[in-house]
Amino acid sequence: MTNRPRLEDMQRADFPMGGEPLAALDLADTLMLAAQPPVDLMDSPAASATWWALQASRLPEGPTPSLEATRTLRAAIRDVFDAHLAGRPPQDTSVEDINAAAATVPTSPRMVRSQTGTTMQTRWHTEQGGNAALAAVARETIELFASPARLATLRRCANPSCSMLFLAANKRRTWCAANVCGNRVRVARHYERTRGANSNPQITTDERHTQG
Length: 212
Known about the structure:
Elements: H1 7-12, H2 23-28, E1 31-32, E2 39-40, H3 45-55, H4 67-86, H5 92-103, E3 107-114, E4 117-124, H6 132-145, H7 148-151, E5 154-156, E6 165-167, H8 178-199, H9 205-211
Antiparallel strand pairs: 1-2, 3-4, 5-6
């Protein structure tokens, strides 16, 4: 589950953020909480199906999750991420929903031989029901919280009017996406500097002579 979608492809499908190392983060970012009122990018079964299709290359094969199940897991994941960043405990129901989604599809390792050698693959057991895609996203969330070093890279976009989350591969990354908030904030800062300079023009030499 390493073939993440490209940010450009996510944005062409009207998802401003995507292509993070974890599908769980991409899912959390389909709810834009900083907007008033919040914007739900999973506003229809079609939108949800499109999002899952974009993530398919890094998730187990199987039926597309329903919109209701997608929103339930997203709410739980978003809560535990926001709780961590805010330094507060997550809601008990959020933890329960994530654990329940992960438990619906057990996995087992499989030894696979090929011309290049022996590798291990993960088998997702859906024989007794459950949705493998939902279980995989829930498991990603659990594994992230089980890795303190990686969890420490979880960030919220530095733009106050954005709620997007991401894993910062390096400390210099502060924006969700350079072509979204990075550019907006840089343009806004340039505008403020320019406006400040124009509103307080320096007095020229001739003006100082006249005033003196």
